[in-house]
Design a protein that fits this description.
The protein is built from ten helices and five strands, in the order H-H-H-H-H-E-E-E-H-H-E-H-E-H-H. It is α/β, with parallel strands linked by helices. Helix 1 crosses helix 5 and helix 1 packs parallel to helix 10.
Length: 209
Amino acid sequence: MSLEIFERELRKECRVLFVDLKNGKRKNRLLIKSNNTNSMSDVINRGKEIDAAKLHRSCVITFGNVLEKATTNYAEVMHCTVYRNKNFLSAKIDIVFRIIKRIYNLESKSNIELDAGKSKKALETLKRKHKLVFHGLDCANAGFQVISKFVVWTKPTSKSAALFAKKPIEEIHLMGFKEFFNLFNINIEENDFFNMLQKVFQEEVEAFF
């Protein structure tokens, strides 16, 4: 049942974030961008129609934003205290919610296989946002514990995600999707989760290509 709730929130966010796909504006925007010749790919494809691969790539990136927003919605539906005003000291923070005395500050990641330089910067950013959440929500006085992690939607556990993460990111900094759902005492099977994501993308996104 819980996975059905998450699927419902994903579909709701898809219908918001992919409006431009349905009305054709996304394709037109990509065409204008490619004609600006900012990259060699733009030069090679200048004047050509936007192919399905480029449109698909753009939509996969947006689907990452769908996951982030749906996660916040899901936490709220599951009766967590959700902090939607997340611009603590001008820092954009992905997902912040509280279960009893624990505040989860999660950075949503569809891909943890970053190069070493990007991994170092990502971890520094996570640690900085951890401090901002701790002070911004007055956790010392409220007695709240802040747990900051990268939630990785392509790996079931922190251990499996750590196999692909580059130093200095380690297992302690990661949370797999099974571990995310475990926060709500829900056990999710890997195949069920991946099949659900694929079905939502096909029906809410690819159907409008």
